[in-house]
Amino acid sequence: MTQKIEKDSNYQDFVREFCSNLSEITGIPESSFYKKSSDGDEEHLYINLVENNDIKEVCGISIEELYTYYLEGKDIRQLAEDLADVMQDRSSVKIRGVIGKMRNYNDVKEDLFVRLLNADSDPGIPEKFICRQVGDIALTLYVRIDEKQGILYSARIPGEMLSIWNKNADEVIDEALVNTYFLSPPRIYSWERMWREHNYEGENFMNIFWNRRISRGPEGNCLSTVSKRNGAVAIFLPGVARRIASLMQDDLYLAFTSIHEVMVHAASSVRLQDLESVLIDTVTAATEEDEQLSMHIFRYDRETGAMECLESQNEELYL
User: Do 215 and 301 share a domain, yes or no?
Assistant: First the structure.
């Protein structure tokens, strides 16, 4: 949204009337609605749609964007009806079915996958949700609920489910990473070809017959997934880091430029301090705040298979 919304009495009246209409149309009590502002001070409206003991589904929308449509002449009732239609579509039988079977691990395990979150952005993530933390990155467990028109609907899994499933976090994260691999396999992308070729689908470097050159230069390699959405998880997928390290014959430096990709470098080809400076400049200039993952460089050890978050070489860059 480009214009700044003044949260004056007209705005507050709009919010109240919109929520009243939405509640009337959907039958969801207004007690299930709540507002929350983002770091950029943009206000969102959240509605609790489905709740079943341990998990719930929430629909969120920018109330300021709705208000902009209202200022442009849209009718409040029509705006509420449009949102109700979207909510009805998402609150399908399939969504309720997935949530209903959540307590049985065998029923839901094939729908589990992993997304990467910045653990520092919400310090409660490791305590509230099932995840594995590597540095300031949390490999977080999600359940796939539905997919429509290329949009994947999902929910994070609360930590309480481990005792219900009688499982440990490492076990379910490992199985979910395998699922993630098959849901969205890893690919290496050439930046030049991505700009030049509309249908470019990346390089399937995990194919044992793949014999193309992989860059050992300071420019590195762009690693993501076939969907290119939340693709930074690719480096944690089974066998991926080991395969790239083998192709490079080197340890790896990893720079997470966003949640969607990670730049992979041969550790002996680039100075850590230079790489960190480039990462911070890139993220600051080109990555939306809600798509940032880590300002740290990670190292993958080819011999041990260990991955670690490295201490900053440029502490002044954080001041």
Answer: yes
Q: 222: which strand partners?
A: 189, 263
Q: Is residue 96 part of a domain?
A: no
The answer to whether 133 and 123 have CB atoms below 8 angstroms apart is no
* Structural domain includes residue 27: yes
| Separation between Cα atoms, residue 298 and residue 255, nearest integer Å | 7
Residue type present at position 9: S
CA nearest 188: which of 217, 151, 215?
A: 215
* Same domain? 201 vs 310: yes
Q: Where does 220-270 have alpha helices with state H?
A: 240-248
Cα→Cα distances 78→67, 70, 105, 113, Å: 12, 10, 41, 37
Model pLDDT for residues 178-212, shown as the tens digit of each residue = 999 999 999 999 877 877 887 888 999 999 999 88
The pLDDT assigned to 47 comes to 81
Percent of the chain with pLDDT over 90: 51
Rounded distance between C-alpha atoms, residue 245 and residue 253, angstroms: 10
Closest CA to 92 of 144, 137, 134, 146: 146
What is the residue range of 25's domain?
Answer: 9-91
Distance CA 41, CA 61 (A): 14
Q: Is there a single domain that holds both residue 195 and residue 309? A: yes
* Buried b or exposed e, range 135-145, using 16+ CB within 10 angstroms: bbbbbbbbbbb
Confidence of residue 121 (pLDDT cuts 50, 70, 90): confident
Exposed / middle / buried, residue 220 (Cβ in 10 Å: 0-12, 13-18, 19+): buried
User: Which of residues 145 and 118 earns the better pLDDT score?
Assistant: 118
Report the number of distinct structural domains present in the chain. 3
Q: Are residues 147 and 270 in the same domain?
A: no
Q: Are strands 221-225 and 33-37 parallel, antiparallel or unpaired?
A: unpaired
